[in-house]
Design a protein that fits this description.
This protein folds into two domains: 7-125, Rossmann fold, CATH 3.40.50; 131-385, no CATH class. The chain has 16 helices and 14 strands. It has helices at residues 7-14, 30-37, 49-57, 59-64, 80-91, 106-116, 131-136, 144-150, 165-179, 190-201, 210-217, 221-233, 262-268, 274-279, 283-300, 345-354; strands at 19-23, 42-45, 70-73, 99-102, 121-125, 206-207, 237-242, 256-259, 308-312, 318-324, 328-333, 359-364, 370-372, 375-379. The protein has a nine-stranded mixed sheet, with helices on both faces. The chain has a five-stranded parallel sheet with strand order 2-3-4-1-5, sandwiched between helices. Strand 9 (308-312) and strand 10 form a beta hairpin. Helix 8 crosses helix 13 and helix 11 packs across helix 12. It is globular. The two termini are 25 Å apart.
Length: 387
């Protein structure tokens, strides 16, 4: 079983708040993380119909059966449990980390927790495996493209199972549409929504244009805006906002859109092999998507906000990612395996504009992490360790 990097953040949050909700996309390992971190806690799953009915019939008394607290999986399937948890916490001695709540339907879980447990709960976001997690267990592919094509969802790395990525992602998308999206939109629009996801895939790594997406599927821009919020809320996509540091430049104000998993992105783009990925016109955008996802994981696994933006002025000068962490990193992402100095031209130009202690960085697909003339060239194998 792979040790999750988010474990320390979960322990930290659980030492302060009575309730911790673990959110993230389907199949990212939320329940496994909870059980791995708190092996002494009773585990309850409301996938069990009998347990679900018992909890719904008398939720306050149900919680009394777990004086030491519990991990409650699929908590959103018994909405009454959230008010009962609130009452239980308020009526008893404060105990940090008493309840850990997880669920596959992010919309209902987060809404119920926000409505009922404000001030008593905190959220930890868990994305699929990071490069660092896979590297520690010797599960990285032989080259970057193998891992990028496969993606990082935990079931694809389960030694007891033998999923082929294309078959698994087919099932994943169907489950997502049936169990998550169907409750958010009109049922008659499900087939259009599936086409919408596929159209969105062609825009990963690009500045968002709702009008272009709307024209591509024949719906209105407001509908596209609503549907994008569904994808974002369920951790399928992430929006990278433009940097607000003017630096004497007139900057664009449009966010860029990225998928959170490169394997799902390849599937939606109908890329069926590593060889097709290498030859794909989308290769650069897919590599950038993969790198951005790794930066998100670094922060979320620490229980921190991403603090990631991108810089682009009206003349088209752009730096792929600005990471405002302990210090500022200006990061360019390149789908090449050679650490050439020309790869860092934009970061060097950006650093001159800032004139501070910001660090220029190039993420590339080579195997060697090194520093050349003050610029860090970071191997894809080390992207998850760079912060």
């Amino acid at each position: 079983m792979i040790e999750r990097a988010a474990k320390n953040a979960l322990l930290r949050l659980a030492s302060q708040f009575a309730v911790v909700g673990i959110t993230g996309p389907r199949q990212s390992g939320k329940s496994t993380l909870a059980k791995m971190t708190f092996p002494e806690k009773q585990y309850i799953s409301f996938d069990d119909k009998a347990m679900r009915e018992l909890a719904a019939s008398n939720p306050k008394d149900f919680l009394l059966a777990f004086p030491g607290g519990a991990i409650i999986d699929e908590a959103q399937k018994v909405p009454e449990i959230f008010d009962a948890v609130k009452y239980h916490i308020d009526q008893n001695t404060f105990t940090p980390g008493k309840f850990i709540l997880t669920g596959s339907n992010q919309f209902n879980l987060k809404q119920n927790m926000t409505d009922s447990l404000a001030g008593r709960a905190v959220f930890l976001k868990l994305l699929p495996f990071s490069i660092g997690e896979l590297k520690r267990d010797n599960l990285l592919g032989g080259n970057a493209y193998e891992t990028i094509f496969k993606g990082c969802y935990p079931p694809l790395y389960d030694a007891a199972k033998h999923f082929l990525p294309d078959d698994w992602f087919n099932s994943y998308v169907d489950t997502y549409l049936d169990l998550d999206v169907q409750s958010q939109i009109n049922y008659s629009n499900l087939s259009v929504f599936k086409k919408f996801i596929q159209i969105c895939a062609t825009y990963s790594g690009q500045m968002l244009s709702m009008d272009n997406i709307a024209r591509g599927i024949g719906v209105s821009a407001p509908t596209v805006k609503q549907w994008l919020s569904i994808l974002e809320s369920s951790f399928i996509i992430h929006f990278l906002e433009p940097d607000t540091q003017n630096l004497g430049k007139s900057l664009v104000k449009t966010p860029k859109m990225y998928f959170v998993d490169s394997g799902l992105l390849c599937h939606l783009l109908r890329i069926e092999s590593v060889e097709e990925l290498i030859l794909s016109p989308h290769k650069g955008a897919i590599v950038e998507t993969f790198a951005l996802a790794e930066m998100l994981k670094v922060r979320m696994n620490q229980g921190k906000k991403p603090n990631l933006t991108y810089f682009r002025d009206q003349k088209g000068f752009e730096v792929d990612t600005i990471a405002d962490w302990k210090r500022t990193f200006a990061i360019e992402i390149k789908s090449t395996s050679e650490p050439e100095q020309k790869l860092s031209e934009n970061t060097r130009q950006y650093l001159k504009l800032r004139d501070d202690d910001s660090q220029g960085t190039v993420f590339y697909l080579g195997d060697l992490t090194c520093r050349i003339n003050g610029i860090d060239y970071v191997s894809w194998k080390d992207w998850g360790d760079y912060s």
